[in-house]
Each structure stands twice: as structure tokens, then as C-alpha cells.
Write a structure and sequence with these properties.
Shape: elongated
Order of helices and strands: HEHHEEHHEHHEEHHHHHHHHHHHH
Helix content: 40-55%
Strand content: 5-15%
Largest sheet: 3 strands, antiparallel
Number of helices: 19
Radius of gyration: 56 Å
Structural class: mainly alpha
Number of strands: 6
Oligomer: single chain
Length: about 400
């Protein structure tokens, strides 16, 4: 267990914040020194994905002549006004030289007014001012070709910064996929997806793609302005980055192919045959009525009785049942849910008889004559009227 925790062959390293305190540098100056290659770092073997500084590298930087002033002079940055004073030229001429791409910025930031402030290395500005080939740019009239570019609105500061930052990322990249990720950091996701069709290769590329410098909350105007600076805008720049990305991805694909998940066999889908839905169980909520069946007439059966006789029989039948309680059928053991079927009744038995209209008395001024008496109402009177009267023998 002790052998796993202590490895004598592993160099002693520390975090960048701890190394900056030991070297007496601010964190911004330390990061700039790392970008310029003044301080070397190694990848974190603990799996965090960051960078660490070896103890031997800290001792090497301390042993340089004039430390720490010499290191601070190499990483010192100035703005437009301070850079113009350092070069002994007006600030307007300094801005024109920077827009033409003659002065390359090393970093930038956004102020509270959301304006981009470019910073330049003081050492590079001194070298540009002391060079004899640049004397005609510092004094006198600006050449006609440069004035035409300025009139057309040329501004190469963002593009020069992207080129410089890309060189820094390529120097720190370890492996073909890391170099491809450094190039992909300056392209939009649409361009990357257009070049790298394989989703597994795009995932591998995003793992090594460095994060853009964050300058605010995601989605804020400050972050949007920073994304425009860190993303290629010119057509020729985009074309060069796309071709470089395709070349680096092809190289990485041949050196270390992307691991893919094992293909799983697709089992056939067994679909069961559809089954009919079983009918719902019948629910009995009350006692079923008795089913009355009527015998079919046969050839030997007597003639059907008249409607009046049938109606009389049906009306007198319930009274007969009440008088004979012993004739009541036994209660069925199982309830039946079959519907009760009744024979249709004749229309003559259902439709009531039409009463003859009473004769109306003639209109006149005389005394009204008494009309005929209304026959008595009742079932027997109605049956008496409906039944045919028996006619006896003719009297002599």
C-alpha cells in the first residue's frame, strides 16, 4: 500500500497557484508566462485534467539572471495609451498600426462599457520601435496602400490574436487528437460537424477541445462578444482552419482510432397474435320475469277466439291466480337473464273504440230538446257493445 502512495520515480509537482506564490508573480502574470513558454508545465497525472509545475522548473526560473525583474519585463503588457508612450508615437497612429496587423495583441478583456481592450507585450513594442525597417511607419505620412486598407475598415487585431493563441495551444498539445481539438476551438460546432461526420470522433474531439476564455455568465452580452473574438470570422481563415482540422483528424484516426462500443446482436421481435377481448360478465340486478310461451296453432286446433273474448280471458286470469295460491309455481333456483318475449297484441284490443258522435241539436229559437241518454261507461258495457248480439227467432 505504501508503494502505491509513494513513487520515488514520480517528480515532485505543485499546483499553478502555489508555483505563482513561490515565484512572486500574480496569477495573470504567471499564466502569461506559461503561454509565452517562459515556464513549462506538465499534465496532471491525478486525472483532474489540469496542469502542474515541477519543483525543478521553479528552481530553474529562480536561477535566471535578474530574477524576478527579468521575468516580469518579459510578461509585462500595456494598453494603447501606454504602448503609444513607450513607442513615442501618437495613440491614433498606434491604433492604426494595430488594426493593420503590424502590432499583435497578446490578450484582451472587456471593460464595464463592454468595449474590447487589447493588451500588447511591452517587450515586443520596444523591438518594433527600435527596428530600422519600421522607421517610416512611426514618422511621416502613412503609405497609400495602408491608408486604403484603413478606409475599407480592416481590423486584424482579433485575427492576429487567434493565430497567436492557436500557436500556443498547438505547442502545449500532446497527441494528435489534442492538436485537432486545438484547431476545432476556433470553429463553430456546425463547421466541426460538417468535417467530422462520425459522432464518436466528434465526442473524442470535444474531450481535447480547450475551453474558450470565459468573461461572464453564459449567454450574457459580455460572453457573446468574447465568443465573436475567439471564433474565426473571415472566409479565408475559416477555410484554412477547416482544411487543417480535416488533416489533423485523418492523422489522429490513423494513429489512434476511436474506441467504439461493441455491437449488440439485435434479437428478433416476437409479436403475439392478437386475442379477442372476452365479453363482460352479465350482471343480474333483479328477478327475471316469467316467460310466457304461446302454443303454435296446429291443424287440429280450434279456431282462434275473437279479440273481445281474448281480452276478457286475459283480464280475468290474474283474479283466478290470486284465488288459487297453491297453483303458484316454485321459485326458480337460478335466475335467468334472458329477455321476456311477449306476443304482439292485436290492434283491436289495444286501440280503444271510437265513440259515436252525439247528434247536435239544430240551432233555433225554440226550446232545446233533450238528447239521447249517454250509454253507461264501464268494461261490461264496452264488452256488451263489442260482442255480437244473439238474434232469436222472428216473432209472428
Amino acid at each position: 500500500m505504501s508503494a502505491d502512495l509513494f513513487d520515488p520515480t514520480r517528480p515532485d509537482t505543485c499546483k499553478p497557484s502555489h508555483a505563482a506564490r513561490e515565484l512572486g508573480l500574480r496569477r495573470g502574470d504567471f499564466d502569461r508566462a506559461v503561454q509565452l513558454g517562459c515556464i513549462r508545465t506538465v499534465p496532471d497525472e491525478g486525472g483532474g485534467g489540469g496542469r502542474r509545475v515541477e519543483r525543478a522548473e521553479i528552481e530553474r526560473v529562480r536561477a535566471q539572471d535578474g530574477f524576478p525583474d527579468s521575468l516580469l519585463d518579459r510578461v509585462r503588457v500595456v494598453g494603447t495609451a501606454e504602448g503609444a508612450a513607450l513607442m513615442e508615437i501618437p495613440a491614433g497612429r498606434f491604433s492604426r498600426l494595430a488594426r493593420l496587423g503590424l502590432l499583435v495583441p497578446v490578450t484582451f478583456y472587456l471593460n464595464r462599457y463592454r468595449s474590447v481592450v487589447w493588451l500588447y507585450l511591452a517587450e515586443e513594442l520596444r523591438q518594433f520601435a527600435t527596428g530600422p525597417q519600421n522607421a517610416h511607419l512611426l514618422k511621416g505620412r502613412t503609405p497609400e496602400t495602408l491608408r486604403g486598407q484603413l478606409a475599407a475598415g480592416v481590423d486584424l487585431r482579433a485575427r492576429n490574436w487567434r493565430g497567436r493563441h492557436l500557436g500556443l495551444l498547438l505547442r502545449r498539445a500532446e497527441g494528435p487528437w489534442a492538436r485537432a481539438g486545438a484547431v476545432a476551438a476556433f470553429l463553430t460546432p456546425v463547421d466541426v460537424a460538417d468535417i467530422v461526420k462520425d459522432p464518436y470522433e466528434r465526442a473524442q474531439l470535444n474531450r481535447f477541445r480547450p475551453m474558450p476564455p470565459g468573461y461572464g455568465v453564459p449567454g450574457s452580452p459580455v460572453t457573446h462578444a468574447a465568443e465573436q473574438i475567439t471564433t474565426a470570422q473571415d472566409a479565408d481563415e475559416i477555410g484554412w482552419l477547416r482544411s487543417e482540422l480535416a488533416r489533423l483528424v485523418a492523422e489522429a484516426r490513423s494513429v489512434s482510432p476511436v474506441a467504439r462500443p461493441a455491437a449488440r446482436p439485435i434479437l428478433p421481435v416476437i409479436r403475439t397474435a392478437p386475442r379477442p377481448i372476452p365479453p363482460m360478465a352479465r350482471t343480474v340486478t333483479g328477478r327475471a320475469e316469467e316467460t310466457t310461451t304461446f302454443p303454435k296453432p296446429t291443424a287440429s286446433s280450434p279456431e282462434p277466439e275473437s279479440p273481445s273474448a281474448e281480452l276478457t280471458r286475459r283480464l280475468t286470469e290474474p283474479a283466478a291466480r290470486t284465488e288459487e295460491p297453491s297453483a303458484r309455481p316454485a321459485r326458480p333456483t337460478a335466475r335467468s337473464c334472458e329477455p321476456v318475449v311477449r306476443p304482439p297484441e292485436p290492434m283491436s284490443a289495444i286501440r280503444p273504440a271510437v265513440r259515436p258522435a252525439a247528434p247536435t241539436a239544430p240551432r233555433g229559437h225554440g226550446r232545446a230538446q233533450p238528447g239521447p241518454q249517454r250509454p253507461p261507461r264501464g268494461l261490461r258495457a264496452w264488452l256488451r257493445r263489442r260482442s255480437p248480439r244473439r238474434t232469436g227467432p222472428a216473432r209472428v
